[in-house]
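Much of what follows relies on a compact textual record of a protein's fold. A record is reproduced here so that you can trace the correspondence yourselves:

. . .
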Amino acid sequence: MKLSTQLGPLIALATLQATAACAQNQAPQVDPAPLERPARLVPIDTHDIDSTFGKVRAAVIASGFVISTADPDTYFIDARRPFAGPPRSYDRVIIWLERNIQKPLARVDVFLEYGHFEEIIAEQTDYLRVVVETPYIDSHVGPLKKRLLDLGNQP
């Protein structure tokens, strides 16, 4: 009799945890890959990197992103575009410009990294980068990429 008295609370706790876990929606798959340096998006023939940085900033804003960091000394931009829930989420782009190694006074290379983050409710609520399919990426960051590619096609 003593054994069943001790196991009763444990069985009840296990049942409650299983019920709570089943009641939650399945979370999206978390993307374990960190944001890391991508391949160059586009080379831009220019000697004026400051002007090009201004055009890139304008393209980011025109694409609906809010710039959280824009460093004109390192030509780096970090921007987010929030979405109203559910689930609460945001797109994030990291863009930077570098002088081309082969033609440092005549060409600037533009780099872009994208991630989609969703609020995940678990032991702690946090925004995590989640896996999204190519069509989703194209619809969310395609207009910005096109604007940046167009900068490379300007005379």
Q: What stands out?
A: Strands lie at 40-45, 66-71, 76-83, 89-99, 107-121, 125-130. The chain is about 35% helix and 35% strand.
